[in-house]
Amino acid sequence: MKTSRRQFFRLMGAGGALALAPWAGSSFAQQGGAQPHVVVIGGGFGGATCAKYLRRFDPNIRVTLVEVNDRYVTCPGSNWVLGGLRQISDITQRFDALGKHGVEFVQARATRIDPERRRVQLDNGQSLTYDRLVIAPGIGFDWDAVEGYSPQAAISMPHAWRAGLQTERLRKALEEMRDGGTFIMRVPPAPFRCPPGPYERASMVAHYFKQHKPRSKILILDSGESFSKQGLFEAGWNELYGDMIEWMPGSQGGQVTAVDANTRTLRTDQGDHRGDVVNFIPAQKAGEIAEQAGLTNEQGWCNVNQATFESMVHPGIHVIGDASVAGAMPKSGHSANNQAKMTAAAIIAMMRDQEVPSPSHVNTCYSLVAPDYGISVAAVYRLENGSIAGVEGAGGVSPADVGKDYREAEARYTLGWYASITEDTWG
Asked: Which residues, at least 6 apart from 17, have a Cβ–Cβ distance to it below 8 Å?
């Protein structure tokens, strides 16, 4: 890495300090203004963080968080459940602690947004008016992209790309699979949530197979031609799992054109593949409420002003996290958490008719190849000509030629990162 780990985290801290600086010591109450109301839809890494930090930046703002579930199961860490390292309960977050920050929590589904009247309709019959609205809906799935795959097919061929019941379903299928069977994973076309996620998943499944079903095989049918941290993953696979994992890029038979959920068969232009367990990850788009509100573009994602994450379609609505088009930033939990803080800062500045602070973003992604073998990628981003771009020379990936101690340390950092970011988001 060109930037040391200590320097990288100093840059992370600098971004947070920049966000706070313009209005330190000043509040709406002190300025004699009415109490503004910000509604946040979605309680994941983006929504929960934004709700919390709006209140931290100014406790006189009324903030209401709307989330359909009473708890949130994180996608980060869900691969560890598949590998037998963790239980679902270990990656399940609650919203109770947000109350101590003054965030009002409403468990309901947002069904309709009226941008003109600035009103959100909920499925419990309640409606909320807002001064500003933040939408963090995460991902939705394009069920029509591949013939034969549907919500019904996801029962026998789970995607597990929204953590929770689907994760448990896939874990159960792995446990019931015969030794010597084949696990097939389909990787969708980019962009999708967590670019390194499928390959960490293959690693964790391989770890489980090595312990319990050593004659089994893993086939990755990839829509793409390369993947995040590819060299590091492949080196780890060769070292730890031998020839257990086979990766097939799109041009060499990895492009899935149709599926048969009854027989767990995936058709490609170069032949069919039948798996004992199939993990089919669908093509993705912004979560359903964003589409319903007319916030999405032709590709299904939300164009935003990348300085403030305000929608380019409807003023007063901000879209953060996986659903947004955020320049060079990947769709990840860390990105959503970082975007949430910067958006909270921008909202307060805009409400006060103050200059919006220039955003500085970071992302880091740790992956486990084995319980004691970690790898990572990190990057720093700045706004350039209206688009979020990577800062040259900042961040990087784990070095290739290192010993066992380094990989073990990165594995510990992986667990530390998870503990830290979940505490920052929901604590």
From this structure: none
- Give the pLDDT score at 26: 52
Q: For residue range 60-85, what is the model confidence (pLDDT) as tens digits?
A: 999 999 999 999 999 999 999 999 99
The Cα 280–Cα 153 span in angstroms is 9
What Å distances lie between residue 44 and 148, 160, 405, CA to CA?
30, 16, 33
Tokens of 354: 């103050």
pLDDT category of residue 28 using cuts at 50, 70 and 90: low
Structure token digits, residue 183: 């696990």
**What is the CA 183 to chain-centroid distance, rounded?**
24
CA 266 to chain centre: 26
Give the mean pLDDT of the chain: 93
Q: Which residues lie across from 143 on neighbouring strands?
A: none
Give the pLDDT confidence score for residue 337 in this predicted structure. Answer: 98
pLDDT score, position 170 = 98
DSSP codes joined into one string, 219-233: EEEESSS--TTHHHH
Plot region of 386 (φ>0 → left; ψ -120 to 50 → alpha; else → beta):
left
Which residues are 368's β-sheet partners? Answer: 374
| Rounded Cα–Cα distance for residues 330 and 76 (Å) | 14
CA distance 311 to 289: 14
- The DSSP string of 266-294 is EEETTEEEE-SEEEE---EEE-HHHHHTT
The DSSP 8-state label assigned to residue 130 in this structure reads -
